Amino acid sequence: MKKIKKIEIYDTTLRDGAQTEDISFSVEDKLRITERLDELGVHFIEGGWPGSNPRDAEYFKRVKRLKLANAKVAAFGSTHRPRHKVEDDANIKALLGSKTDVVTIVGKTWDFHVREALRIELDENVEIIHNSVSYLKKYVEKVFFDAEHFFDGYRDNPAFAKKCLRAAQDAGADCIVLCDTNGGSLPQTVGSAMEKISGTISASIGIHAHNDSECAVANSLIAVELGASQVQGTINGLGERCGNANLCSVIPNLQIKTWFDVITDENMRRLREVSRFVNEIANFRHFKRQPFVGDSAFAHKGGIHVSAIVKRPETYEHVRPELVGNSQRVLISDLAGKSNILRKAKEFGIELGPDSPEIQDIVTRLKELENEGFQFEGAEASFELLMKKSLGLHRRFFDLVGFRIIVEEKKQHGVPVEATIMLKMPNGQIEHMAAIGSGPVNALDNALRKALTKYYPQLQSVKLHDYKVRVLEAGKGTTAKVRVLIESGDEKDRWGTVGMSENIIEASWQALVDSFEYKLLREEQS
User: Fold this and answer.
1) Residues 288, 289, 291, 296: is their CA dihedral positive or negative?
2) E-assigned strands of 398-477?
3) In a domain, 305, yes or no
4) Which residues, listed in sequence order, are joined to residue 164 by a DSSP beta bridge?
5) Please, which pLDDT band fits residue 303 given cuts at 50, 70 and 90?
6) Is 312 in the same domain as 373?
7) How confident is the model at residue 306 (pLDDT cuts 50, 70, 90)?
8) CB-based contact 342:349 (threshold 8 Å)
9) Residue 380: C-alpha distances to residues 330, 345, 487 (Å)
10) Are residues 316 and 207 part of one domain?
11) Residue 489: helix, strand or coil by DSSP?
């Protein structure tokens, strides 16, 4: 299908998505997600609000060290406050202080909000929009204006809403983004408004839809059909209340089914991987029935369906699952896995042909582990080790003889924890070490390091950046299986490892061992 127009994808997972209930991204989380979004091929990544909290300020300092190939990082903020000069406004200063090439500011376009929230005159609001955009344009390559509550504002006072848009346009906004902030608009409402304003606004138009009426994806698609050239949304539809437009649906719908050019076909095959990665980092369960990227999106159980898709998959599949990195599954006889293994082997620099007998061994082992409760999205290092073990490319750097954790509560000194560990090294030497820590995992980590650094001094550079625990079995209380996800790193790279057990210490041990073995194996083979 010949593509006639480029559509820009503006990802706000790190800002709007971070406002999801039960999510708290660390700086390290945000940096890792940034890299994955860039690999996916999105055009803009909204990193956060630099004037709102120290975490976002730190992110904008550190993100400059990343070598992004596709995306530009955007800082988000608001128009300057009423009764403040734009050049003196703390929010505007923080936006410029982030030193990004792109800045996005949100401003009111609903007269109800202007009167009730800001409590200023309508003309003053228009002036604030113009002043904020024009001032930022003096210093920033691109300025996007998010027209907050636009569709509600256009419904109640279309003349004022359009006046706000023209103020941003006249001030030099590179894109004017129409926001369905309350998420209550229907596709026909969005379509009607788009048709009426398209001839009155010459600037590029974007769409930012929330999902409170389950219409965010549909509203985004109809806006593009009627002229929008930028879509804002989040991976997996994360966001405040009911979430934002789900880019995992928006991107393939546009790329596969329309004349619009969004991301490359090669990058789109990463979509499922990125979806699961973000869920793992957010510590969320994967939604099996999520369109395009869910486990059940291309799963077939009914006998008539299975009989048909074996002959012609399109009989019960609206797109080929491989296009989005997914795979067809027959629930009584799982056929998925080979293509994913080959792609990951290539990514890891492992030579593996399509007819290699080891592929089935890897697939079988992977499915066994996932059935037990392991998940390797967000734990790339553990999966690479799994592949190398199956292919005979791995070696043991040490073996566990045993370890013991002692927790002693003292009223005056808190709860000190001591870990004692015994390892057998390749030369047969037994290393017996003890260490204390602020908790059992920290103490175990410290003891393991003490035992290993004499043999492998390069492990001194490895730092544990993040530690997450997920309970896998609801209703089983303290006997439930848990999955531990650890993020480690050195001066050059970061990597994730995973462990799973009914015993949280055992699960942590598995993830720690993988982290150290990954570092040692990578340096040995480099």
Assistant:
1) positive
2) 399-407, 417-424, 430-437, 463-471
3) yes
4) none
5) low
6) no
7) confident
8) no
9) 26, 12, 10
10) no
11) strand
Q: What is residue 336's predicted lDDT score, i.e. its pLDDT? A: 42
pLDDT of 375 reads 85
Percent of residues, the chain, with pLDDT higher than 70: 96
Bridge-partner residues for 204, per DSSP?
A: 175
The model's pTM: 0.79
Confidence of residue 438 (pLDDT cuts 50, 70, 90): confident
Q: What are phi and psi of 60, to 5 degrees?
A: -70, -25
Q: Looking at the structure, tell me whether residues 44 and 58 fall in a common domain.
A: yes
Per-residue CA distances from 85 to 49, 91, 147, 173, 436 (Å): 20, 11, 21, 19, 55
**CA 371 – CA 499 distance, rounded (Å):** 14
The torsion angle over the Cα atoms of residues 269, 19, 21 and 502, rounded to 10 degrees, is: 50
Average pLDDT over residues 75-100: 95
Supply the range of the domain harboring residue 517: 339-397+460-526
Q: In the beta sheet, which residues pair with residue 399?
A: 424
Helix (H, G, I), strand (E, B) or coil at 420: strand
Query: According to the model, what pLDDT value does residue 152 have?
Result: 97
As given in the structure block, the two tokens for residue 307 are: 């009989």
Shared domain for 367 and 423, answered yes or no, is no
With 60 as the cut, is the pLDDT of residue 331 above it? no
Strand arrangement of the beta sheet that strand 463-471 belongs to: 463-471, 482-489, 494-501
Q: Which of 248, 282, 316 is the endpoint of a domain?
A: 282
HEC readout, 67-102? CCCCCEEEEEEECCCCCCCHHHCHHHHHHHHCCCCE
pLDDT of residue 275: 98
Residue 259 and residue 247 in one domain: yes
